[in-house]
Amino acid sequence: MSEIILDTETTGLSTREGDRIIEIACIETKGLIPTKKKFHVLLNPEKKISDDAFKVHGFSNEFLKDKKKFKDIADEFLNFIGEKDLIIHNAPFDLGFLNNELKLVNKSGIKKNKIIDTLILAKQKYPAQSNSLDALCKRFNIDLSKRTKHNALLDCELLREVYINIIEAREPKLFTNAQKIDNSIKKNTSTVEYFKKIVEPTDEERSRHKIFLKKEVKKNFFY
Prior knowledge:
By secondary structure, the chain is of the alpha/beta class. About 45% of the residues lie in helices and about 15% in strands.
């Protein structure tokens, strides 16, 4: 079964205030192992980016002014996610923005039953603790050195590792390596032909063997 790890960046915190999406990142996984299929776009939001949001992700309106608009990538995005489960941290935020964008281009919204919210899972497992993506990465000793600013694609990669730790799944890389080794063995052994060489004893060897059995073996069931 395939899943999609998804994250967005926005112009601000509220669709009611007209805030829009400026970045969408999706990483497809199968059994939480990346398939190498990714969907990543930067968007012209047609809305001024708030100062607070700029401090978080570092994308300016000037930088985004020549990027595609959501309406230009809506179909491609929907085709990519399909009917797969979406793994999102703090899903109501991202889902609210995505469904708002889809509504603006007369598309059906994403169903909530396809969502796995890692924030809810983390709160259930670690109540009364900080469960932000940063906090969870630190708790699980996941490298945050590249996260100087929020970046949807990087956050997807971090979220995959966080989710693996939350559900206490064995690191998929181990399965991947084991599978490669197993496939390698199968590949190598499948080309080896079975070989058997039959060596016939001489008459003298047969005679000596009979004498040995009579003298050395108390109960001889063969002779």
